[in-house]
Amino acid sequence: MKHSPPVEKKATPSGGWRAWVSWFLLLLFAAEITAAIFVRHKDKTFAVSQFAKLPLIFEGRVQPMDSLARNSLLQIRGITAVPLEGNGANGAWGAWEDLRAQGGELSERRWHQFAKHPRKLKPADWLLEVFCSPRQADDRYIFVINHPDLRSLLKLEGGVENSALHFYRFNDLKDQLGELRDEAERAGKLDASQRNPFDRAVLQLNNAFGLYFRLKNTVQPEDSKDFRQEIDDYLAAAAQARAAVRERQTKGEKLDDDEPGVAWAKCSWKPRAPGCLSRRDCWPGLLPRIARATSPGSTGCSASIARCWRSRGWARTWPKASANRSSTNCSPSSAACMSIWRRSCWSCFIGRT
After folding, report:
1. What is the pLDDT averaged over residues 20-35?
2. Tally of CB atoms within 10 A around 232
3. pLDDT, tens digit, for every residue of 301-332?
4. Between residues 197 and 347, which one has the greater pLDDT?
5. pLDDT of residue 240
6. Phi and psi for 91 in degrees, rounded to 5?
7. Beta carbons of 166 and 146 less than 8 angstroms apart
8. How far is CA 345 from CA 286, 298, 335, in A?
9. Do residues 128 and 50 make contact, with C-beta atoms less than 8 angstroms apart?
C-alpha cells in the first residue's frame, strides 16, 4: 500500500493586519497621553495658565487657583466645564445668547453629535470671569436644578438641558432669592433624617448661591466698574486729607475725631459688616485699610489684574509687562503683582470676617 507524502503547510505570519492595527492604536494612544502631559498650550490672550497656578489659602490649606475653580464648579454645577454653545430650536447650533433670541428649548451637545465641538470655559477661565467680570459670569448656565417642585417654586422656564439635568443662569434666579432663602431657612432647621429630596435640593442650591456670591466679591466688589481706579482715587484723596490735617496740627489747632473728614483722614478701619452677602456692604473698611499702607499691595494688584483681564492687556506671558500696556492702562507692573501674590500666598478670604 502506497502512502502519499505529507503535504507541507505554508507558515502564515502571526496576526497579520490585525497586529499592525493593534500596534498603531497603541502608539496613537501613547502619543495622546504624551502630548497631554508634556505639550504646553500657549495662552492666546490672557495668561490663564499662569493664573491657575497662583497660590491661595482656602479652608486652611494652600492650593492653586485651579483647585478652587474646579472644586467650586463641582459644588455649583457638578461638572468642571461650562459650555458656551449648544442646540437650539429647529436643529440650530450656536452660542446660547444667539439661540435664546430665537426662542425654543436649549440643550447641550447630544452624545451622537460627534462633529460638534462647543466652546467651553475651563475652570480657571470661569473663575477669572467670576472675579473680574461678574455681570458676564451671571449669564452662564452653571446652577443645576433638577427637582420639579424647586423649579416651580422659583418660577423657572427654559434653561439648558443635558441628559435630564437642567442648568440655569444667575440672571434666571436672582428675582426669586427671597423664596429660596425662606425655604433654606426652614429646611436648615430640620434634622438630616427628616429632610426629603426637595429639602436637600433647596439646601444644595442655597449653598451653591452662597459660594457664588463670595467668589464674585473676593477680588473686588461685584458692582465695581474699575476697582483699580477707585483705589487710586481714594489714595489720592486720603493723601490730600492727611496733608490738610497735618497742616492744621502744625498751626496748633485741636482736632476732634468726630469732626467731618478728620477720622476719615486718619484712616480708622472698621471690620467687615457681619452677615453680608455681596456688594459693597462687604467692603466698608477695605479702602481705609489700604490707605494706611504704603502701597495698595495684593488688593491693588488684584484690581489691576481685573482691569487687564477685561481689556485683555496682558498677552501670553504674565510676569512680563505687555509691550502695549499703556494702551490698556495696566498698572502697577504685572511682574510686581506676581511677586506680591506669590510672596504673600494671597488669601482668598471667602467666608472670613
Report:
1. 79
2. 15
3. 777 777 777 765 433 333 333 333 333 344 33
4. 197
5. 80
6. 75, 10
7. yes
8. 19, 10, 15
9. no
Q: Residue 351, CB half-sphere, CA atoms under 13 Å: how many?
A: 9
Read off the pLDDT of each residue in 38-67 and give the average, rounded to a whole number. 77
Query: How much is the pLDDT for 198?
Result: 96
Angle, vertex CA 134, rays to CA 41 and CA 320, nearest 5 = 40
Spatial contact of 271 and 285, defined as CB atoms under 8 Å apart: yes
Cα angle at 281 between 276 and 285, to 5 degrees?
115
Q: What angle do CA 99, 177, 132 make, to 5 degrees?
A: 60
| Mean pLDDT to the nearest integer, 262-277 | 44
How far from each other are the two terminal CA atoms of the chain, in whole angstroms?
107
Residue 239 cell numbers, joined: 493723601
DSSP 3-state of 58:
strand
Tally of CB atoms within 10 A around 302: 24
Residue 160 corresponds to which cell in the numbers above?
A: 439648558
Residue 278: pLDDT band by 50, 70, 90 thresholds?
Answer: very low
To the nearest 5 percent, what fractions of the chain are helix, strand and coil?
Answer: 50, 10, 40
Task: Please tell me the predicted confidence (pLDDT) of residue 331.
Answer: 37
User: For the chain, give me the number of helices (H) and strands (E)?
Assistant: 16, 10
Counting Cα atoms < 13 Å in the Cβ hemisphere of 283 gives: 20
Residue type, 81: A
Residue 37 identity (one-letter amino acid): I
Q: DSSP character for 226?
A: -
- Answer left, alpha or beta for residue 155, where phi above 0 means left and psi between -120 and 50 means alpha: left
Strands (DSSP E) contained in 117-158 are 120-121, 143-144
CB 322 within 8 A of CB 334: yes
> Could you give the CA distance from residue 276 to residue 352 in angstroms, rounded to a whole number?
11
Is residue 228 a contact partner of residue 307, using CB atoms and an 8 Å limit? Answer: yes
The answer for 89, left when phi > 0, alpha when psi is -120 to 50, beta otherwise, is beta
Spatial contact of 285 and 297, defined as CB atoms under 8 Å apart:
no
